[in-house]
Write a structure and sequence with these properties.
With 332 residues, the protein is of the alpha/beta class. It is built from 13 helices and eleven strands. The chain is globular and about 65 Å long.
Length: 332
């Protein structure tokens, strides 16, 4: 897809150092190797030297690819990482021996490298669960000081020559915040708009989605969406946003003009904000499985430094794309 090729090219123009916590996984190795050869990122893989080296050799890697390996059991970074983790979590009553054990977890080790400035971002989740991957990022890297919350979004790349003429949409939140209140929904919308601009270089137009369009139904669920829109407009008056909108009114120009006449967003939205995780998760999977979209994510936003989660069903290309996304996030 052209939009993903463009994203990778933008990342290669400002490469970052990305650490991948699952260096033993062949998909991770293949995606990392492609990213390194494309100049998207300097790569560090976490795992035992023996296993990761064997995976790299099988994938055809050479020393010229410049891929580094860090084994938490033997790394010269480990002792400092233990000190940092213990200082970070001692308020929870942990013992130093527990810190030593935790730092040998590749997810924790990778996030500590990012926290300590030894890497610019991290990617995991090809093997680990989303809950484990996100927990490590939250505990070690933490929320950005200016972020109201940590949330997620998916970059949805539409099939080539889609009838809409669109290349990509941003869907949020489809992976993390289960039942956001109006304030959280407004914050997710603002963060997703910023992410859309950062990754695609395109001005965002935000649709606050619902089962109702412009008052066609009355319900507390609808009121939450309209309240979120009011908060979003108050905090970010320059952001184009409208709602509440049904998806067709947000996406299809003729339907938008009929259901929401006078709206500059209806029919032209590129940032779709779902009212809760039920709607968002179901929505992105329908777009992916029936609509043929490539779904990149969940991409985390609101962290102090970039960390992202892969699907356990990911491909090497998914890994490559997530490395590119994380590189672009690190460039801000």
């Amino acid at each position: 897809m052209k939009v993903l090729s463009a994203l990778r090219q933008r990342a290669a123009a400002r490469p970052a150092h990305i650490v991948l916590s699952e260096g033993h996984d062949p998909r991770v190795v293949a995606g990392a190797l492609e990213a390194a050869r494309a100049g998207i990122a300097k790569i560090t893989l976490i795992g035992t030297h023996e296993e990761v080296s064997a995976r790299l050799a099988k994938a055809g890697a050479t020393p010229d690819d410049g891929i580094l390996i860090q084994d938490p059991a033997t790394s010269d970074l480990t002792q400092s990482a233990i000190d940092t983790y213990f200082d970070l979590r001692k308020h929870k009553g942990i013992r130093r021996d527990f810190a030593e054990e935790q730092v040998r977890d590749p997810l924790i080790f990778a996030t500590l490298m990012v926290r300590k400035g030894q890497a610019d971002g991290t990617v995991g989740g090809a093997v680990a669960t989303t809950s484990d991957t996100v927990r490590a990022a939250l505990q070690v890297i933490g929320k950005a000081k200016d972020a109201p919350l940590v949330s997620s979004f998916f970059l949805m790349a539409l099939p080539e020559d889609h009838p809409s003429g669109r290349a990509a949409l941003t869907f949020g939140d489809c992976g993390l915040v289960i039942e956001p209140d109006a304030g959280e929904l407004a914050a997710i919308a603002a963060a997703s708009a910023a992410s859309h601009r950062q990754l695609l270089g395109e001005s965002p137009k935000i649709a606050m989605l619902s089962f109702s369009t412009m008052g066609s139904a009355r319900h507390p669920k609808v009121a939450k969406v309209t309240d979120a829109l009011a908060l979003l407009r108050k905090a970010h008056p320059d952001l184009p946003a409208d709602g509440e909108l049904q998806f067709d009114a947000a996406f299809v120009p003729d339907v938008g003009a009929a259901k929401a006449p006078g709206s500059d967003v209806a029919g032209h939205a590129n940032v779709m904000i779902f009212p809760n995780l039920d709607a968002g998760n179901i929505g992105y999977k329908i777009a992916q499985r029936i609509g043929g979209c490539a779904a990149i994510g969940p991409i985390l936003q609101g962290l102090a430094k970039p960390a992202n989660d892969l699907s356990r069903g990911c491909t090497a290309e998914d890994v490559l794309n997530m490395i590119a996304v994380t590189t672009l996030q690190a460039a801000k």
